[in-house]
Structure formats: structure tokens, C-alpha cells
Amino acid sequence: MTTTPLKPDEKLDFKRILPIFVIVLVDLMGLTIIIPLLPLYAVTFGADALTIGLLGATYPLMQLVGAPLLAGLSDRYGRKPVLMVSQVGTFCGFLLLGVANTLPLIFLARFIDGLTGANTAVAQAAITDSTTPATRAQGLGLIGAAFGLGFTMGPAIAGISLALTNNDFHVPALIAAGFSLLSVILTGVWFKETLPAAQRHTLARQNAGGGHVLQRIAAALRSPLIGMLLVLMFMQQLIFGGFEQLFTLFSLTRLGMDGAGNAAMFLYIGVIVVIIQGKYIGDLRRTYGEHTLIHASLVLLGIGLIGFALTPPVPVPWYSQAAVQTALATSAATGSEGVLTGIALPLPPDGNNGVVGFVWMLVAVLPVSIGGAMLSPLINSLITRRISAGSVGGALGVSSALNSLANAVTPLLGGALFQFLGPGSPFILGGLLCGLLLWLALRRIPPVPEDEAPATAVAAAH
Predict the structure, then answer these.
(1) Rounded distance, CA 364 to CA 421, Å?
(2) Are 380 and 121 in contact (CB under 8 A)?
(3) Range with top average pLDDT, 376-380, 383-387, 439-443
(4) Which of 93, 167, 277, 320 has its CA 20 to 30 A from that of 142?
């Protein structure tokens, strides 16, 4: 068997992508340190469940406004200055979170971070500038790989810092601010502008009179093809984001898995995501194309979610109901479980312990992780190949904003389904929605021939 050598435009230039990847990873380290602790941090200031929900929605809702605006400005003024502004905002938000002594200050910190939170969208635009249509999915997949690495390291750093400081929640926030400051420094020193000034002048004329950011979102959604891709992006984030957010609750109530067991499962998921997005997605895209892989990803995600929902209720061998109840009542640093102490959880009874449910879940999580890992970079890659190079930043900003909206809706919708229709209902509904999205994708998203892909700014960067 012989392997056909890759053409120059089919090889991802890792030297050009590496600074973007490292900067995004460092930036995400701060975010992933905070995410597991924010509910507990709010509880220390007397927040109830509703307030915690509102706090969780503050960041993505503000990002819904800020990300498209800043990403669009990156088309006009360049990627580097806008990325710097976004990262400085994140740093200020984390710093304020670290010194906060009242609940309103915590809300203000998340408001600032969310409003300036275009880091990922601008980084995606920079990767688009630095790749060809043939390498774009692999390049954008590295952003997802950075997320996977961040979500395996950030919570560990948070847990260690709490253990060493007697559960002082200010310390992880200040550590997150430190990572954010490092990302600002790396951007200023290492990152080279990917959008040349001559092209920015052209974009300024193209974007003149483009209207309010919400008008641009509405205009993008009205476009028959791009609108469908953006809807697909929103729905996949709603589905996969719901899986991530409700995973711990489901595994606790179905298998009796505590914080340590769930941490191990998240590490397993993170490793799969990193491998798929960092290594395989480029080769798969070159072989099958975005169109086919999006269909396959929806099938994998749908089947995996339904399989996950049907996990047998067999508690893990080390499960003890009394031990889990004690841990929930006394835990001060186990992420989201800490805020569940006042919620009646249907813990499994003792007895009938075994490995069947755990092994079943390991198998079911595999297609969910693979499908979820591929969808976002593939959809973004297809979006960039359906528009002119001059609109890349704005389009990816809209995509990022819709992700933020999905992240704001998911906890409310998924939590209601979980509580009123049963623990497996959000995942079954997600699997069925994947089937609907597959049908829509087959009907409404035609493939893009390679020679029809619009020119990007890759050549101009040399």
C-alpha cells in the first residue's frame, strides 16, 4: 500500500499555528480553573440555586454580545490588537474575581470577562488566516484540542490550590488571573499578526455600514446556507454542552460515582477529544471532506447519547450510599457537587454493585466524545469555505456567540428535563435531535468542491 504525498497546501504549518495554540491553551487554563469552582464560590457569599444559575448565564450571555463585535473588529483592525483587548478583559475579570468580597463583584467580574470574551473567536480567525481550505479543519481542531487539554489540567490545578490553602476560593481565581496575564504577555511578544494591513483596509470598506452586531447575527442567520450551518453549530453545542454539564449528575444518580470517579471520566473524555482534534481530524477531513464527516459525527453523537442514557443502573464496585451522602454534605471543593447538597438526589441503593454500568458508560462515551470533538471544527471550517476571506472574523464571531447562547440555555433546559422527566431524558432528546439535524444537513448543506473554496489570507501572510 502506497501513500500519496501531500501537496504543500495540504500540510498544516505547525510553526505558524503553534503560537496561537499555546496562547489559547494558556488562556483556557484560567477559564478551566474557574469553571468547577464558581458555583461554590458564589455559595460562600450566600447565593441560592437561582442566583447561581443566573451567575452561570452571565458570562455566555455577555459573550453573545461581545464576541461577534470584537471578532468583526478583528477583520477591520487586525487579529492581534483585538486579541490583546479581549485577553486584558479576561485578566481584569479574573483579578476582580480573586479580590471580590461581595456577590455583586462576582457578577461584575463575569460580566467583564464575558463582554470581552472573544479570545477563541479571534484565535479561530487567526488560524483561518494561517491555513488553507485543505488544512483548516485540522487547524481549527487544535483549538478544540486546547480545550481538551485545559479541561484535564485546569480542574487539577484548582483542586491542588484549594487543598493547599484550606479551601480559599480567592486563590484559584488569582491563579487563573496569572494564567490570563501570561496569555497577554505571550500574545504581545510571540504572536505575529495574521491579517495584513492592506487586506484590513479592504475589509473596512466591505464592513462599512454593516449595522449593529445583532443585525449582523440576524443577517448571517438569514443566509440560506450559512444560516443553516450556524443553526447546526448552535444545536450541536446545545446537545454536547448539555452532555458535559449533566454528566456528573447522571453518573452520580445512575452509578453512584463521586467526584474522583467523575474526574477520571472527564480525563478519559478529554484525552479522546485531544487525540481526535489534535491528530486525526486533518487526515479524516482530507480523505472524506467536512460534509461527510459532519454526517458521521451526528450519527456517532446521537447513538452515543442514547446509549449513554440507557446505562444500566448498576453502582460501581466502590460505591457506598452513606459515604456519598456524607461527601455531598461536607464537601467544600468537589466542583458542582458541592452546590447539590440542598437538592434531593435519587442516589442508587447499596447492593448490586458491579462493573457493568461503568463499562457500559465507558463504551457509550467513546462515540459521544468523537462526534462532539469533530463537529465544531468541521462546521467552522465549512463556514469559512462558504464565505469570502474578508468576512471570516465576523462569521466566526457569530458562531462563537451562538455557542455562548447555547451554553446559557443548556443548564436551564437540561436541568428541567433532568428533574421533571428523569435523568436519561436530556440525553435521549439530544440523540433524537442529532437524527433531526442529520436529516436537515443531508437536505440543506451541499458539499463544497475543493476548487470552489474562497481564497484566504494565507498567501498574504508570507
Answers:
(1) 21
(2) no
(3) 439-443
(4) 93
184 or 264: which leads in pLDDT: 184
Q: How far is CA 194 from CA 83, 84, 373, in A?
A: 12, 14, 26
Sign for the CA dihedral angle at 364, 367, 369, 375 comes to negative
**At a CB cut-off of 8 Å and minimum separation 6, what does 136 contact?**
127, 128, 381, 384, 385
pLDDT tens profile 304-350: 999 999 999 988 888 877 776 665 554 433 333 333 444 445 778 88
pLDDT at 144: 72
pLDDT digits (tens, 9 = 90+) for 337-366: 333 444 445 778 888 888 999 999 999 999
Phi, psi angle pair for 167, to nearest 5°: 60, 45
Q: Cα separation of 79 and 89, whole Å? A: 16
Residue 438 CB partners (closer than 8 Å, separation 6+): 295, 298, 299, 302
Q: Residue 364 in contact with residue 272, Cβ under 8 Å?
A: no
Query: What cell numbers appear for 92 in the block?
Result: 481584569
> Exposed e or buried b for every residue in 190-225, given b needs 16+ CB within 10 A?
ebeebbbeebbeebeeebeeeeebeebbeebeeeee
Q: How confident is the model at residue 77 (pLDDT cuts 50, 70, 90)?
A: confident
Element (H, E) at 19: helix 14-34
Dump pLDDT digits (tens) for 103-151.
899 899 988 888 887 777 788 778 877 877 777 767 777 777 777 777 7
Closest CA to 122 of 222, 18, 23, 5: 23
Query: What domains lie within the chain, and their CATH numbers?
Result: 11-448+455-461 (1.20.1250.20)
- The three-state (H, E, C) secondary structure of 50-61, written as one string: HHHHHHHHHHHH
Q: Enumerate helices (H) and strands (E) in the chain, giving the number of each.
A: 17, 0
